[in-house]
């Protein structure tokens, strides 16, 4: 589901994720290589047009992975081994965004964020169709584990710590 729909379905994880990803401006993106093995790449993230958006250089390996096999995982970037902000994990499929209004919204958002935007049409733009999500935090008094999927909804799960 689109980000705005996910935020309504699971506000607990969506609010934590959006705050964290806006602050970090970067995620670790997991894609599937042509041989089926995993690829992990850093990727900037933006929110516009009710979507979570991943902009990529034209014909980059991660973009080519997603055009071939749209399955992906997004993970917040840990700040250190204790990671006081917690881990956000989003799972789903990438949607190749060709809609001019969505692309305009992305360009406006990235221009606001870093005072630069890619030239049309020389970049790939994907939105994340969220299928599952999770959040976990560690540390005494800060232990929390949440999961979401459309079948079971949002739930608190047993913390492994």
Q: What is the structure about, briefly put?
A:
The protein is of the alpha+beta class and 161 residues long.
User: Under CATH, the topology is which?
Assistant: Pnp Oxidase, Chain A
Number of discrete domains? 1
State the distance separating the first and last CA atoms: 31 Å
Name the helix and strand elements from N-terminus to C-terminus, one letter apiece: HHEEEEHEEHEEE
Question: How helix-rich are the residues, as a percent range?
Answer: 25-40%
Main β sheet profile:
9 strands, antiparallel
Q: Structural class, please?
A: alpha+beta
**Poorly predicted tracts of residues:** none
User: Kindly state the mean pLDDT as a whole number?
Assistant: 96
What is the approximate shape?
A: globular
Q: CATH superfamily assignment? A: Electron Transport, Fmn-binding Protein, Chain A
Number of helices: 4
Assign the CATH class: Mainly Beta
From the 3D coordinates, which CATH architecture would you assign? Roll
How many beta-strand segments?
Answer: 9
Radius of gyration: 16 Å
Bin the strand percentage: 35-45%
């Amino acid at each position: 589901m689109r980000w705005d729909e996910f935020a309504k379905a699971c506000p607990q994880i969506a609010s934590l994720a959006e705050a964290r990803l806006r602050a970090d401006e970067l995620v670790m993106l997991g894609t599937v290589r042509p041989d089926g093995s995993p690829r992990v790449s850093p990727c900037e993230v933006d929110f516009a047009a009710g979507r979570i958006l991943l902009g990529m250089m034209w014909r980059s390996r991660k973009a080519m992975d997603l055009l071939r096999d749209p399955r992906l995982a997004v993970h917040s970037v840990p700040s250190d081994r204790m990671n006081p902000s917690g881990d956000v994990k989003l799972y789903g499929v990438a949607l190749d965004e060709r809609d001019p209004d969505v692309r305009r919204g992305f360009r406006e958002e990235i221009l606001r964020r870093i005072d630069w935007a890619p030239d049309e049409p020389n970049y790939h733009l994907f939105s994340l169709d969220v299928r599952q999500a999770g959040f976990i935090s560690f540390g005494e008094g800060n232990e929390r584990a949440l999961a979401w999927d459309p079948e079971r909804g949002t739930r608190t799960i047993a913390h492994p710590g």
